[in-house]
Amino acid sequence: MKKRVGIEALAVAVPSRYVDIEDLARARGVDPAKFTSGLGAKEMAVTDPGEDTVALAATAAARLLKQQDVDPSRIGMLVVGTETGIDHSKPVASHVQGLLKLPRTMRTYDTQHACYGGTAGLMAAVEWIASGAGAGKVAVVVCSDIARYGLNTAGEPTQGGGAVALLVSEQPDLLAMDVGLNGVCTMDVYDFWRPVGRREALVDGHYSINCYLEALSGAYRGWREKAVAAGLVRWSGTMPGEQLARIAYHVPFCKMARKAHAQLRLCDLEDAVGPGPGTPEARDEVAKSQASYDTQVASSLGLNARIGNVYTASLYLALAGLLQREGAQLAGQRIGLLSYGSGCMAEFYSGTVGEKAAERMARADLASVLAKRERVSIEEYERLMKLASDAPEPVAPAPGAFRLTEIREHKRVYAEGTP
User: Fold this and answer.
1) What domains sit in the chain, N to C, each tagged with a CATH number?
2) Tens of pLDDT along 350-377?
3) What is the mean pLDDT of the chain?
4) Which terminus in the chain has less CB density within 10 A, N or C?
């Protein structure tokens, strides 16, 4: 009998401040609808130099262990997926292991491939457990990133930051993965990149969207071929993609999920067995079905709209938002997930929502995580953005959270907030 492996629980950490996206639009002389309707944004997380990738990752991981009552001695692997590394050699994972005083008898490392890095870590953990190499241990995978494009840039309203920590085990209360049924697609492209030494990314926006959609098509078709062969979906009265209860996508901005869903449906329409829309224009129109989007995608975007782009964590914020809202309703149903990282790599996979998903999400208490944030003015946001990354301000960390306090002889020093 094959092992059931997947995500047992999750926890989320976000920066302590945010700006209202309409405030940002007005400050930039832009119609707020361009950011709210055009991008699907409501709020945008704002980091300061003390809230770096390590601090966010450690906070999310500590929150996971505490909220879900995880025995640290059970952990045999810790992976951090990030594209906001803090050192060429020393991984974020090593900092997290030390800050949380986790066992020495565990594997720790970072994974990097733009926004796909967290999924790379998740797949490594799932396959480690499924193979038996984990010998009964669990894994913690943390997706932690800060999306930064700079003041008065085209990408400014699509910034954000945060971390999602995933507990991966043989008790997949949140999501039992369909191990081995992944579809992948990779291409060598320059759609988005950040040269060494730069805090802000370089983006070819329209090209990056096209790369995302092309890679999605390849990954989805790869998954669909395996899923049809395994009998999980079929060509019947409905298209294979419609047989998934929900689909969560990588979300650099919320409206990208709408484009992605239309592209996935277009793949089914183009490859359909039997009669269907006869022209490309007709297929394109059907692919953009509002009803399909509302049913399968819309409910996953609540957290992303309030936090912004979190690179590796964006897909898993969508998963968290979906299960927070519909965990009980979706129990026992299969959902699909699409991960994309520029450069580029896409992976489509699926899994069945666990019967205890709602209970696990209640422990994560995501409403409280968002409620504790402070809304700041555009002036304060701009001040924070101009601070040097290596000079954190003397701010005490919140209870249970971590902060970078100083960099001493190139060594990063962190503090944990006490109750």
Assistant:
1) 6-416 (3.40.47.10)
2) 999 999 999 999 999 999 999 999 999 9
3) 96
4) N
